[in-house]
Amino acid sequence: MDQNSFANLAGKNALVTGSSSGIGRAIAVEFARAGANLLLHCRKSQQAAEEVVQQIQSMGQTGQLIVADLTNEDAPRKIYAESEEMLGKIDVLVNNAGTDLLTGNESNLSYEQKLCKLFEVDIRSTTMFSKLAGENMVDRKQGTILNIGWDQDDRGMEGDSGELFALAKNAIMGLTRSLAVSLAPHVRVNCIAPGWIQTAWGKSASEKWQNRVIQETPLGRWGKPEDIAKMARFLCSDEADFMTGQIVNVNGGAVR
User: Which of 43, 90, 91, 214 has CA atoms 20 to 30 A from the CA of 107?
Assistant: First the structure.
């Protein structure tokens, strides 16, 4: 643990949704490394999430888990209420949970069904978690909310998945900017827009896609979940206390 270093989160309680793997897992571990106590959330990968909890506890931090399906309309309210019972006040909310249209069961759904899943999980849950946490944080006059967007929203990407992700992530990025104004001056709201990050799909992507990623990324490599986690740690720390309403690209320099 290096909680005495830059971007200290010591003593803060953080709720990270969708944290059993990939970016969410990396953020949870990085936050624990910075001294935060964590409440993790997953939908079905309970064993993987429990491994993250154990890793966090091995660092000397509190780690707990809630298993819930965010397609349930009442889930955000129930999870947030449970989080306060389990950890106490929530200082940091990270809305990372999202529908996996590329490698999960949802990859076989129709276009319309995928759209509904994205609305339920990516858009609605992010909005409701943010509203619930935001109201509580305003009452306490402190707190930070971090959302996850997508760096290609502003330039588009071909194909069904590109269209659907653009729709969902643009909604989240727009919410970030507006909510930052609504909750100012005591609560900060920012968003990370990842580029090509080597999560589950990236590890199994075809040679064509592997080459495309390298060609489109000036730094010449896939991003790692840890690259996103380090930025998340900074944005949720006091070192970023003059940053709100920002969409921060973490994408190896891709501009096209």
Answer: 214
**Token pair of 249 as six digits:** 């690209």
Q: Is 173 a residue whose pLDDT tops 80?
A: yes
Give the pLDDT score at 1: 52
Confidence of residue 121 (pLDDT cuts 50, 70, 90): very high
Q: What domains are there in the chain, each with its CATH number?
A: 13-250 (3.40.50.720)
Question: Is residue 3 over pLDDT 70?
Answer: no
